[in-house]
Amino acid sequence: xxxxxxxxxxxxxxxxxxxxxxxxxxxxxxxxxxxxxxxxxxxxxxxxxxxxxxxxxxxxxxxxxxxxxxxxxxxxxxxxxxxxxxxxxxxxxxxxxxxxxxxxxxxxxxxxxxxxxxxxxxxxxxxxxxxxxxxxxxxxxxxxxxxxxxxxxxxxxxxxxxxxxxxxxxxxxxxxxxxxxxxxxxxxxxxxxxxxxxxxxxxxxxxxxxxxxxxxxxxxxxxxxxxxxxxxxxxxxxxxxxxxxxxxxxxxxxxxxxxxxxxxxxxxxxxxxxxxxxxxxxxxxxxxxxxxxxxxxxxxxxxxxxxxxxxxxxxxxxxxxxxxxxxxxxxxxxxxxxxxxxxxxxxxxxxxxxxxxxxxxxxxxxxxxxxxxxxxxxxxxxxxxxxxxxxxxxxxxxxxxxxxxxxxxxxxxxxxxxxxxxxxxxxx
Length: 428
Prior knowledge:
The chain is α+β, with helices and mostly antiparallel strands. It has three domains: 49-161, Nuclear Transport Factor 2, Chain: A; 164-278, no CATH class; 297-425, no CATH class. Helix content is 15%, strand content 31%. The strands form seven sheets. Strands 5-4-1-8 form a four-stranded mixed β-sheet.
């Protein structure tokens, strides 16, 4: 069917009010080489090996119903064994497809920019890397189908940014006070809740394992491999392993599941079952993030002050710290009850409560970087040498722990402390 086109030319164009309607040419489909679709199409009847491969790659961008459309391109033996979630290959350009019709084979060469594994962990590909994937084809009911394929899907970066979403798996810090996020990437679909819970069961990523605790006991599994959502309630049916835990741990499991699953739109609460028997796990409220003031803190010649508009208000207890030590840098806790002053002679710490206290030297090293207080009030300090050592001090300044880190001879220019719990899994 032809399409009526109205064209406005550049310049002082106006909508025509007279003249006959002209028929323009048919609008052709996009290039057949463009495999990036959000709504994949079924296999074409009588399609060639190249057509089937191209359609299969396109269908890899549609995770609906466990890649149901993509599975239509597969031979019957492969439909149930193909594992598209094993790996997602993210690319910035179209793949290079080579078809060998004489041997019923084809290959796809891509230049990946990133990978996502079955656990949702994203890793960046090495520069200018090239991957090649092989496919085999068979005839079924007179139609070409894929009889051999790698367990992966290939998507472009724009499609990935739309189809996939980052979710946090929440685990507890070493003191069981705060929930710490472990960011993963999953496609947004009905099974996302199930993948999130299975991710919690599998535990944190290797780099985070020493810093967090997983309240779910070893051997925990989903009794029914599906987390259902209805009327804002996410129903999670675990096996009986969770029943052997203490009341406190049960509360932590409830908090962990709720924090993780509430990222899914519409989820407001979690109902936990054990082997299909609904459980009443106690509520456990992790410590909230401290309420940080939106007013920035600045250092003047006389005190540390909060900046509001064009005016400043001195923070009680900081005048002595600033006027006596004349620091070049500072740190202050979120509650404004402790402050640190960095000078050419070292790092000082002082209480700001009541009438305050005399500043106390806690780190006498030279060339220290800007100090940082963590959320529990510990003061962190590090030297800028090529073999740096982190030190952190309690609020009395009398205790310190040395934490040597290997940075392969690189000079540290600055550092920051994560806002989620105690850094590096320390036991404060």
